[in-house]
Amino acid sequence: MNDYGLNIWGNSNFIIEDGKLCLNTPSKPAIIDIVKQIRDDGYRGPLLLRFPHLIQKQVEQMYASFAKAKKEFGYKGNFNAVYPLKVNQYPGFVKNLVELGKPYKYGIEAGSKAELLLAMAYNNEGAPITVNGFKDKEMINIGFIAAEMGHNITLTIEGLNELEAIIAISKERFAPKPNIGLRIRLHSSGSGIWAKSGGIYSKFGLTSTELIEAINMLKKANLIEYFTMIHFHIGSQITEIHPLKKALTEAGNIYAELRKMGAKNLKAINLGGGLAIEYSQFKQTTSRNYTLNEYANDVVYLLKTIAEQKNEPEPDIFTESGRYISASHAVLVAPVLELFSQEHTEEKLNLKKKNPQLITELYDLYNSIKPSNALEYLHDSVHHMESVLTLFDLGYVDLQDRSNAEVLVNLISKKAVFLLGNKSNIDLSKVQKDVQERYLVNFSLFQSLPDFWGLGQNFPIMPLDRLDIRPTLPASIWDITCDSDGEIGYNDETNPLLLHDVDVEKEDYFLGFFLVGAYQEVLGMKHNLFTHPTEATIKITQSGFEIENLLESQSILDILEDMDYNVYEIQDTLNERLEKSSLINDTQKKQVLGELYLFLNDNSYLKTIE
Ligand SMILES: *Cc1c(COP(=O)(O)O)cnc(C)c1O
């Protein structure tokens, strides 16, 4: 059976039972049952499900791996982690994360004023806050306020001008001060599509010359005791461990050098984020060559070695992994609205008494196809279809002939794929590209999978049920935006996704899009004014699940208001125009007004044809 690569990307979070995709917890609830319960209350369109137990799992694994590595190597420095808010700032995620992170004193990383204020409101008592990114005086001021409130905060400076501002502000403020971190510019960088954050050409960090100057400035301003951390971040989704090791060696040596220059309170190295997850659902495109345990062991071992060599204390370790912590907690579920060639059934065939030769041949192929000739016939039919289209352009066959050819080729390809079974066959996969089925799915790729649009990042996709039935149709997924980029195409090499042949007018068919909890929500854009989907938090209980914090997708009026339209003006104008219409009478107008009111207060995803 097709398990859609669960054993590659699933991290044991899901299992298949009775053909349904279930959460791998003792009560094993099926995702489709959760979805049905929500839809029974009238919610339509895409749903974003959040699973706090999967956040907890990632947080626990991260702390456990580092604890194990520290024990194994007898490492004396502490391990600390902060969650970078930019990866997902939605309250449905952040509030759960903070709560679950309490026992670990799991902290927060902020990269803007808004994120910093959010961190100051929600961060766990005694847990660290780190601040990265470009800062103006106001932002530094907020950092001082955080320290004055009792937060354990470190302002990591990205350039010497920020350090100058800190020195100036510290003279004006009250006694408590934030700790100071320096972001170092490494000559090593990461690998993969998000590797731009590291390296000497990166946007961030101090060069060696600037580091020396920073130490001198700090000493002169009597602030050197507040300098506690160096920081680097070599990019997101680091696909190989080697560049990280190089970066760590470099950072470890800088740490030791700075301490020797008199930075006696420098006690921590912050590795930034970048810990990768496996997004691929196909063996041929897997992307990550290390595990969390290896990562933790390498970090601890390398830092221990350098500290020993340089005769300096083993530094505290800080990590800022975001993707690793948040990606798996969110699953987008979207209903399939239509299969484009669904009408290509035998009933739609309307053969003439006398048909063009090619159509007769196609009809014969359809009737005599069997396992031994299926591939050959499939090839022939695709070839015939091309000829029919040429003849149509030249005016030799008519629209009815063309329709018959389309129906026959679709019927042949469905039958062929079925007859050929699971055999992986290079020829078959090539033909599948030509006979792919287009699934129209009720979601916006721009809103819910922006990294697919922007970077070609694939996310695992699978149906939520029928997993005991062999899928036979090579699938490309179309979203409901009017943009031709809103498509996840079938690709026989990198994305050979097969889905089921279902009649969605008779039965529901839902697709799950997985690992969408990192970056996608906040990067998502309102193209065509499709907004963040309806979301719910799913708490797993002993006997099943509970649906909490159901938040419906924004209404059309809310979306327009967000764009600074005056929504009263919109409503009044619609009203006036309706009043002025002489095409319907007053009773009819009253009804239409009521309808308009409902539409404006509903979200913009499709619902009636579901
Ligand atoms: C984006 C970012 C992170 C998070 O990176 P992930 O790849 O999501 O772990 C951590 N630290 C800094 C400074 C960042 O800019």
UniProtKB/TrEMBL annotation:
Q: Which gene encodes it?
A: speA
The record's section on InterPro entries has: Ala_racemase/Decarboxylase_C, Arg_decarb_HB, Arg_decrbxlase, De-COase2_N, De-COase2_pyr-phos_BS, Orn/DAP/Arg_de-COase, PLP-binding_barrel
Q: From what organism does this protein derive?
A: Campylobacter mucosalis CCUG 21559
Q: What is this protein called?
A: Arginine decarboxylase
Q: What does this protein do?
A: Catalyzes the biosynthesis of agmatine from arginine.
Keyword Membrane assigned to the entry: answer is no
Sites bearing N6-(pyridoxal phosphate)lysine, chain numbering: K86
Q: What is the lineage of its organism?
A: Bacteria, Pseudomonadati, Campylobacterota, Epsilonproteobacteria, Campylobacterales
Can the keyword Lyase be found in this entry's annotation?
Answer: yes
Q: Per UniProt, which keywords does this protein have?
A: Decarboxylase, Lyase, Magnesium, Metal-binding, Polyamine biosynthesis, Pyridoxal phosphate, Spermidine biosynthesis
User: Could you tell me which residue ranges the Arginine decarboxylase helical bundle domain spans?
Assistant: 353-424
Q: Which GO terms describe its molecular function?
A: arginine decarboxylase activity; metal ion binding
- Named cofactor requirement(s): pyridoxal 5'-phosphate; Mg(2+)
Enzyme class at the top of the EC tree: lyase
**What domain of life does the native source organism fall in?**
Bacteria
